[in-house]
């Protein structure tokens, strides 16, 4: 459905700019692939903010950690990509649970600013430590043999790994959305954060739910990190490069809106992709420009509820 | 009375020292070398702590003293920010008696630092910056630019490719001063050699995903896609080019490749790619001997910037010894009079504009099968004589 919408959007744009539709289709597809990364990362942030009201600035560092863990697993323990894809997010999730329990929870009742500063500090420490140990040039990580090569589409050469990125991240994104919005577990989660006292009165262990939610939200970043390792440079600054953009996406989508984060992530990937085609110099700025406009017109974000 | 005499003597000595009454000899009784580098950012590996290590090695090999006075090293992180770098340099000169500033990596920082240094008549020994401005439009009698510059990269890598029939070029360029300079000078070389530039995209610094640019390069019908970028941008763009099959149909030329970047790339992707380098550790016994010592201390093989850093520091200390003073003008004169000659500087001269002209290497990245060790990454394809590689001296920069 979204794909069709984008394809017809492509048609319109092609007529408007008188450009080769093939070239544009390639750019749209590439935009969607990047968008699925944004969707994964902003989903994690939106869950953590939407349900726990914590602004997690360490999300980028956890994404970096995901890529590094995948590299370490392969080089120190011989664990291949597929196992890493499962084990690394679990490891990162556990790390996040410890972080929530011992660092974030003690300041949970303070102003949002405290958790923001704390997680920002954690991110700086992690990034600094990895730069110290592994240097800033990055480490090589190969595309798994099963996903090497590509398919020749009429309008572009689509590497198999990129196709895998879009499929796997969309599956993860939409199942997460489905669990939170459509299941009983999700209902507990939402209720527990809305009114913790009442839920505790019903015998629901709210602190446990909070911890697990934080762990899951961060694990999503770890998953994105493993997905990114074969295609982007595994380097300590990979997280800080992407984090600010992802925050802008969460703001555009509406702080805390789960579905909004996913759709906005995909949309911004496409917007950025088209900018890279028409005016590359603005490609790092366009999302922020979009954010400014959205904040002016609809301060709660595209999919956010008015406060 | 005696105490007062002593005090007066002390005051007189202090005044003499601070006003630089001594025309010859070592000012402040110490030669202080300031090493300004990026310690934790994108350029930390190509110079960074490794450049500090190279300076330490040079000082130790020199004997730790010059003209009977100790040699001291201080270092600082410029964070790749020109304001941070120039503030540090000012502080060093004004309140810490630093005699010379070296390291100098990001061209923007070097631009700011050399201005401060020239105003104070202090020498800048530039190891790893790429821009050729420091010996052309921003030249100064106190600048020394050692390892390489954008002109050498373009002449070294681009010229032979155009001559071999790769006439149509497309550039993926880093959208800041260095990338523009590199693309500009490479374009000039291409056009002079009878080739043409069919298109270019300017990718912002730190772009994560290059697939959009790679698709545009693919659609351009170019014979060669030139990557006018560095560090992480270079690694990311090349990885993406390989993934999208660009490297199979088109030549991809990395215009600025450090050994650190080559080590970060899967040989399957990078094999066969040509690059120009000021130094390679595995060239002969001399380079291997020094590089082994460096690796033992630093853990990684030296980049061209780090090797140049040692060579340049040594040349500076030798010039102080020969001149009998650390006074900047006298030292510069001596440095230019004496031909640098060591494991790094081959067939070298330090021109009057401060450009150190030496043999450059055209290298290609080895495939996995022909690597004898993990550090065995380059084949040396050709030696490019210095006068072919570097830009000629401008008359207005001929500081005698």
From TrEMBL, chain B:
Record carries keyword NAD: no
Signal sequence region: 1-23
CDD domains xrefs: PBP1_SBP-like
Keywords on record: Signal
Pfam families found in the cross-reference section: Peripla_BP_6
Residue ranges of domain Leucine-binding protein in the record: 31-367
Recorded superkingdom: Bacteria
Family stated for the protein in its record: Belongs to the leucine-binding protein family.
Protein name according to UniProt: ABC transporter substrate-binding protein
């Amino acid at each position: 459905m979204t794909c069709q919408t984008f394809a017809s959007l492509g048609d319109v744009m092609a007529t408007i700019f008188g450009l080769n539709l093939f070239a544009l289709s390639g750019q749209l597809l590439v935009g969607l692939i990047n968008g699925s990364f944004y969707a994964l990362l902003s989903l994690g942030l939106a869950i953590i903010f939407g349900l726990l009201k914590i602004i997690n600035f360490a999300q980028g560092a956890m994404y970096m950690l995901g890529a590094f863990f995948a590299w370490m697993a392969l080089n120190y323990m011989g664990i291949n990509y597929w196992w890493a894809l499962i084990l690394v997010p679990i490891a990162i999730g556990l790390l996040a649970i410890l972080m929530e329990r011992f660092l974030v929870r003690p300041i949970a009742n303070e102003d949002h600013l405290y958790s923001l500063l704390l997680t920002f500090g954690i991110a700086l420490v992690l990034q600094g430590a990895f730069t110290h140990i592994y240097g800033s040039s990055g480490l090589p990580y190969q595309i798994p043999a099963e996903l090497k090569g590509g398919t020749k589409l009429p309008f572009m050469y689509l590497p198999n790994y990129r196709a895998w990125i879009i499929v796997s991240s969309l599956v993860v994104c939409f199942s997460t959305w489905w669990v939170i919005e459509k299941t009983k577990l999700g209902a507990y989660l939402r209720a527990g954060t809305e009114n913790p006292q009442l839920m505790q009165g019903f015998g629901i262990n709210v602190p446990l739910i909070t911890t697990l939610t934080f762990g899951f939200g961060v694990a999503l970043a770890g998953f994105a990190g493993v997905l990114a390792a074969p295609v982007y440079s595994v380097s300590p600054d990979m997280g800080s490069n992407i984090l600010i953009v992802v925050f802008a996406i969460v703001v555009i989508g509406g702080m805390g809106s789960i579905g909004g984060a996913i759709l906005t992530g995909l949309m911004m990937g496409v917007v950025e992709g088209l900018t890279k085609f028409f005016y590359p110099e603005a490609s790092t700025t366009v999302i922020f420009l979009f954010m400014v406009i959205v904040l002016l017109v609809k301060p709660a974000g595209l999919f956010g509820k008015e406060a | 009375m005696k105490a007062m005499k002593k005090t007066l003597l002390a005051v007189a000595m202090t005044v003499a020292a601070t006003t630089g009454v001594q025309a010859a000899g070592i000012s402040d009784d110490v030669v202080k070398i300031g090493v300004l580098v990026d310690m934790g950012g994108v350029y930390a590996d190509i110079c960074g702590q490794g450049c500090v290590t190279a300076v330490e090695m040079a000082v130790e090999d020199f004997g730790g003293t010059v003209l009977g006075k100790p040699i001291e090293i201080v270092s600082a992180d410029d964070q790749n920010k020109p304001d941070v770098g120039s503030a540090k340099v000012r502080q060093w000169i004004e309140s810490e008696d630093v005699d010379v500033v070296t390291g100098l990596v990001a061209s923007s920082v070097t631009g700011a630092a050399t201005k401060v240094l020239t105003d104070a008549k202090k020498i800048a020994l530039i190891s790893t910056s790429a821009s050729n401005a420091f010996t052309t439009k921003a030249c100064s009698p106190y600048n020394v630019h050692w390892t390489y510059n954008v002109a050498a990269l373009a002449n070294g890598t681009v010229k032979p490719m155009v001559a071999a029939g790769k006439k149509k070029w497309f550039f993926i360029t880093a959208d800041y001063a260095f990338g523009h300079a590199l693309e500009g000078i490479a374009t000039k070389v291409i056009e002079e050699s009878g080739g043409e530039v069919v298109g270019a995209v300017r990718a912002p610094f730190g772009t994560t995903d290059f697939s959009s640019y790679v698709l545009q390069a693919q659609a351009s019908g170019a014979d060669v896609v030139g990557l006018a970028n560095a560090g992480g941008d270079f690694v990311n763009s090349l990885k993406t080019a390989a993934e999208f099959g660009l490297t199979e149909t088109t030549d991809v030329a990395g215009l600025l490749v450090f050994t650190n970047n080559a080590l970060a790339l899967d040989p399957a992707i990078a094999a066969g790619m040509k690059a120009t380098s000021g130094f390679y550790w595995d060239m002969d016994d001399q380079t291997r001997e020094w590089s082994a010592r460096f690796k033992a201390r630093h853990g990684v093989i030296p980049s061209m910037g780090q090797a140049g850093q040692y060579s340049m520091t040594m040349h500076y200390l030798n010039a102080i010894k020969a001149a009998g003073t650390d006074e900047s003008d006298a030292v510069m004169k001596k440095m230019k009079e004496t031909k640098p000659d060591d494991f790094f500087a081959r067939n070298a001269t330090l021109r009057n504009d401060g450009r150190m002209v030496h043999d450059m290497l055209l290298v290609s990245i080895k495939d996995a099968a022909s690597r004898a060790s993990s550090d065995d990454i380059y084949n040396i394809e050709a030696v490019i004589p210095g006068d072919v590689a570097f830009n000629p001296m401008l008359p207005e920069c001929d500081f005698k």
